[in-house]
């Protein structure tokens, strides 16, 4: 019995969810409700709810009844140790997305504004991110397909090219917008 319990723990995939400090569109709660399904029971979900999220209390109340979700209390922590332990990532299209790309993840991205959408759309066309629409009727199945196919990391050539961009990101941006 002990071996079967250990095996069950290893079989659970770890997923990380962070929709930014503010999350004005309340995507954190919408995504957590989406993940509260039999399809996603084998995934252990670590979530950070932004310190400026107006729905923080509501999210915490909801999560009390969801067995596979754990809220990480602080949102201003070093995320590297968390990244080392997770298999999948869901984020907005902001700063965290770039950090995830730097660490080699192919994040599942739910953009929260037009700028994030345009950037994520471009990155999706180049196969760097999985672009998702929270309003899609097929969202649950699309998300499940990504997770099932284990499409969570960038290949080596994609990692090298994105790391060059991110490492010198501000210089690249200046070069793009400068006349």
Question: Outline of this structure?
Answer:
This protein is of the alpha/beta class and 179 residues long. Helices cover 46% and strands 13% of the residues.
Low-confidence stretches: 1-11
Succession of helices and strands: HEHEHEHEHEHEHHH
Instruction: Kindly report how far apart the N and C termini lie.
Output: 67 Å
State the assembly state of the protein chains.
Answer: single chain
Helix content: 40-55%
Name the beta content range: 5-15%
Which term fits the overall shape? Answer: globular
Q: How are the strands of the biggest sheet laid out side by side?
A: 3-2-1-4-5-6
- Number of helical elements: 9
Largest sheet: 6 strands, parallel
Number of strands: 6
Q: Structural class per helix/strand content?
A: alpha/beta
Radius of gyration: 17 Å
Mean pLDDT: 80
Task: Describe the protein.
The protein is of the alpha/beta class. The chain is 46% helix and 13% strand. A 6-stranded parallel β-sheet has the order 3-2-1-4-5-6. Helix 5 packs across helix 8 (156-167). The chain is globular, with a radius of gyration of 17 Å. It starts with a helix and ends with a helix. Residues 1-11 have low confidence and may be disordered.
């Amino acid at each position: 019995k002990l071996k079967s319990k250990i095996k069950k723990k290893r079989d659970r995939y770890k997923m990380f969810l962070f929709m930014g400090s503010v999350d004005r569109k309340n995507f954190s709660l919408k995504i957590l409700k989406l993940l509260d399904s039999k399809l996603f029971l084998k995934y252990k979900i670590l979530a950070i709810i932004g310190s400026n999220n107006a729905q923080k209390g509501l999210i915490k109340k909801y999560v009390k009844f969801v067995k596979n979700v754990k809220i990480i209390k602080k949102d201003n922590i070093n995320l590297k140790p968390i990244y080392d332990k997770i298999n999948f990532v869901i984020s907005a299209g902001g700063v965290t997305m770039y950090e995830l790309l730097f660490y080699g993840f192919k994040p599942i991205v739910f953009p929260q504004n037009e700028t994030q959408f345009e950037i994520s759309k471009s990155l999706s066309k180049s196969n760097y991110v999985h672009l998702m629409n929270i309003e899609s009727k097929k969202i649950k199945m699309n998300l499940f397909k990504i997770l099932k196919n284990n499409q969570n990391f960038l290949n080596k050539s994609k990692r090298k090219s994105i790391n060059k961009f991110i490492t010198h990101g501000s210089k690249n941006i200046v070069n793009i917008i400068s006349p």
